[in-house]
Amino acid sequence: MTDIIKDTEAKMKKAIDVLKQKYSAVRTGRASAALVEHLKVEYYGTQTPLQQLAGISVPEAHTITIQAYDKGAVKDIEKAIQKSELGVTPKTEGGVIRLNLPPLTEERRKELVKVVKKESEEAKVILRNIRREAIDAIKAGKDKKEITEDIAKTKEDEIQKLVDRETLEIEKVLAAKEKEIMEI
């Protein structure tokens, strides 16, 4: 039964890590390599993450530069950037791709906050699904007489405390990201 608790906690931590990774790809007022590093580029017939094809740097607050390791991949990288939802047109100069990120409008910031809230709600749903799986496993152990009713109740309470703690963590991460998006 301790394995169920540890496994549940690990799954919940992973869900929050995924949420944080998704948040890092949401554009705020500043340029960040995380905005583009996970873009999939069609490279020799294979979907490849941009970070494997190029060096990504942020020389200025509103500029991202991408230096392709293979000069033949520059056009493919440009296509991937144009297809993405970044809303930025790449400019290529001598094999270096530059992305100039314009300042966000108030309306766009509010849209991004909605996107971020939706992502956090999805993470909470994942937490609840993990909780349900764990409680089902505990009930199965109780039905098979592997654990007593008291132990089952204690374990269910522990799992609920985990869910509550991780939900608070999601709320903290959401509040920080909202503040970051809305700050000019």
Plain-language structure description:
The chain has 184 residues and is α+β, with helices and mostly antiparallel strands. 59% of the residues lie in helices and 16% in strands. It is elongated, with a radius of gyration of 22 Å.
**Total domain units:** 2
What does the largest sheet look like?
A: 4 strands, antiparallel
SSE topology string:
HEEHEEHEEHH
Q: Remind me, CATH topology of the largest domain?
A: Topoisomerase I, Chain A, domain 4
Spans of at least 5 consecutive residues with low confidence: none
Fraction of residues in β-strands: 15-25%
Helix content: 55-70%
Any key phrases for this structure?
elongated; Topoisomerase I, Chain A, domain 4; two-stranded antiparallel ribbon; 184 residues; 16% strand; alpha+beta; 59% helix; 5 helices; Gyrase A, domain 2; four-stranded antiparallel beta sheet
Summarize the model shown.
The protein is of the alpha+beta class and 184 residues long. It has helices at residues 2-24, 50-53, 74-83, 106-143, 149-182; strands at 40-43, 46-49, 54-60, 63-68, 91-93, 96-100.
Topology:
Blueprint: H1 2-24, E1 40-43, E2 46-49, H2 50-53, E3 54-60, E4 63-68, H3 74-83, E5 91-93, E6 96-100, H4 106-143, H5 149-182
Antiparallel strand pairs: 1-2, 3-4, 4-6, 5-6
Helix pairs in contact: 1-4, 1-5, 4-5
